[in-house]
Amino acid sequence: MTPLNHNEFHGLRTFFSVPYEPRRGNNRPRNEQTIAKSRERICGFLGWLKQSGRETKPSFVNFEDIHLFLDKYVEGYLRSIRGLSHGSIGNHITAAIDVLKYRTAQASGAAKLNPKANMKIARLMRTRNQEQTLAERERNETRQDNASSGIVWEQVLEAVRRQRLVVVELWEQSNEGKEPNYKLAIEVQHYVAVAFYTCMPPGRSKEIRLLLGRNLSESESQESMNNHITVLQGRHVAVISDYKNKQRWGRDTIELPTDKNVLVKHLQWLMTPAVRHLLARGDNHGFLFCRRNGSSFADASAWTAYLSGIIGKHTGVAGVGTNTLRHAFTTFMETSVDDDHLRLRESVGRAMRHTNRIQQNVYNDVSNLERKRKAVEFASSAFKKAVIEVESDEDAVAPVRVNPPIRAVVGFKDEREAAAFGKVLRITTGDVLVMVLRRSPSTSDVLIPDATKVLRKSIAELTWPIDYDYKASGEGYLLGPNVVAIEGFSGRP
Questions:
Q1: pLDDT tens across 450-477, in order?
Q2: I need a labelling partner for 371 at 20 to 30 A (CA). Which of 31, 409, 415, 485 fits?
Q3: Which residues contact 49 (CB under 8 A, 6 or more apart)?
Q4: Prior bond of 441 cis (ω within 30°)
C-alpha cells in the first residue's frame, strides 16, 4: 500500500466517522467495524487492479471508471469467478459509493453533498439497490425452503434440558460442586453457554463468547472495555461493552434471570479460581469460555461450531449457530405472546394523539434496563418450564380443558397411520407443535422425547386426555400399568 493510499483511507475514515459532517448528508457517523469492512472491500478492488496489471499504483481515482468497476470487477471477477452472492456484491458496490461520495465532497465546494447529482454515484446506487432486492428475494426463498426443516425453539430448550440433567448428575457426585473436576467443569460450561442463549433473548456471538471470566465491581465495570458480569442494585447484569446493529452501537446492559438455579448458580461456580484453572489449563486469557486446549474462543466460527455441537448432540440437528437461535426465539415469541399489550400500546398512542414511536422514545420514561426485563422474564419462564420443568397452575395437566396444556402427553396417528404419543410444545391458532415420544432403549415402559421429530398437528388430530395413565419420570414419561404396548393405543377420537 502506497503513502497515497494511506492518506486516502485516513481521509475516508475521518469523513465517515466524525459526528457532524454536512457534506456527508443525513447519514449517521459509522463505527470502526463498519469502516473496517468498507476498507477491506476497497482494498479488494485496488488489489485486483494491481494483480491484473491494469494499474501499478492503484488509488481512489480508479473508482471513477465505473464501467471498469461494474463490468470487469463486479461482473467478471466477483460474480463469475468468485461466485459471490447478490448481498455480498451489493456490499462491494456500497464501498465504491463511499469512495465516490468522499471524492465528490473533497472536490466540491458545496456545503452539503447531493449524491444523486453525481451521475456515477446515481448509477452505482441503482445497481446496488437491484442487488439488494435480489438478495432479499433469495433470503425469502431460503426461509420458505427451510421453514419445515429448521429448528424450533422448543427443540433448543429440550437440548438444554438434557444438558442440565447431565450437569445435575455430575453435580451430585462432586458433593454439590465442592469437589470440582474437569469433566464437571466442561459439562457446566456447556450448560452455561447454551443457557445464556436460551434463558434470556439470544445475543450475538461475540457478546457471550468474549465475556470475562470474573465478576467486575461497579467501578471496574464503568471503565472496562470488555464484555463482563457485574452486580447492579443487587442483580447480576451482563454488560456488553461493544455491540453493533444496523442503527446503533456502543455499550449495553441486560439483567440475568433472578432465579439463580437458571443460570447464576452455575455461572458463579464457573468463575471460581479452581474451575478457571481446570478449564484454562494455564492460559491466562481471562475469558469465561475455554476451548478443549484452554484457549479462548477468539474465532466466531469456532464458537458457532461449539454451540452447534452441544445442541446437535441432544437434538440431532446440525449447524445451529447464534443467528439460528435468534430466529428460532423470535418466531417462538411472535407465536406465543398475546397481542393485547400491543393493542393497548396503540390505543394509548391514539388517545394521546401521538405515534407509537414518539410514545416509546419520548414519553416513556422507563429505563432502558427495565424495558428489557419483560423480555428476560419471558425467555426465562419458557426456559424454566422446558429445562427445569417448573410447573405453574396454568401448565398442569388438566383433563377439564378443551385444549391440551403445554407438556401434556397426547395421542395421534403418525405418517404410517400407526398410533403414537407426543409431548405438546406450543399451541397456536388451530395448530399444535408436538415432539414425538419414543420408547427408551434402556427401559421399555418409559417414553422419552425424540428432539429430532417435531410435528405440526391440528388440534382435531390429537387425542387428549389419553386413555392411559402416565407420569413424568426422569428423562421421559412412565407408562401406567394399564398400558401393554404402544401399538395398542386406542384413545378417544
A1: 888 888 887 878 887 775 555 665 666 7
A2: 31
A3: 55, 58, 62
A4: no
Whether residue 311 has pLDDT greater than 70: yes
Type of residue numbered 208: I
Q: SS3 letters for the chain?
A: CCHHHHHHHHHHHHHHHCCCCHHHCCCCCCCHHHHHHHHHHHHHHHHHHHHCCCCCCCCHHHHHCHHHHHHHHHHHHHHCCCCCCHHHHHHHHHHHHHHHHHHHHHHCCCCCCCHHHCHHHHHHHHHHHHHHHHHHHHHHHHHHHHCCCCCCHHHHHHHHHHHHHHHHHHHHHCCCCCCCCHHHHHHHHHHHHHHHCCCCCCCCHHHHHCEEEEEECHHHHHHCCCEEEEEECCEEEEEEEEEECCCCEEEEEEECCCCCCCCHHHHHHHCCHHHHHHHHCCCCCCECCECCCCCECCCHHHHHHHHHHHHHHHHCCCCCCHHHHHHHHHHHHHHHCCCHHHHHHHHHHHHCCCCHHHHHHHHCCCCHHHHCHHHHHHHHHHHHHHHHCCCCHHHCCCCCCCCCCCCCEEEEECCCCCEEEEEEEEECCCEEEEEEEEECCCCCCEEEEEEEEEEEEEHHHCECCCCCCEEEECCEEEECCCCCCHHHCCCCC
Which residues, listed in sequence order, are joined to residue 216 by a DSSP beta bridge? Answer: 230
* Cell numbers found for residue 123: 448509477
In terms of residues, how long is the chain? 493
322 close to 205: Cβ distance less than 8 angstroms: yes
Q: Which residues contact 448 (CB under 8 A, 6 or more apart)?
A: 437, 438, 439, 440, 475, 476, 477
Cα 482 to Cα 211, 487, 488, 491, distances in angstroms: 52, 13, 11, 13
Report which of 435, 411, 431 is spatially closest to residue 423, judged by C-alpha positions. 435
How far CA 395 is from CA of 239, 386, 392, 399, 491, in Å, comes to 34, 11, 5, 12, 22
pLDDT band at residue 492, thresholds of 50, 70 and 90? Answer: very low
Write down the residue that cell numbers 413424568 correspond to.
Answer: 472
Distance CA 453, CA 475 (A): 16
Residue listed under C-alpha cell 469467478: 81
Measured from the Cβ of residue 305, the count of other Cβ atoms closer than 10 Å reads 14
Tell me whether residue 301 is exposed, middle or buried, using C-beta atoms within 10 angstroms of its C-beta: 0 to 12, 13 to 18, 19 or more.
exposed
Mean pLDDT of 386-397: 60
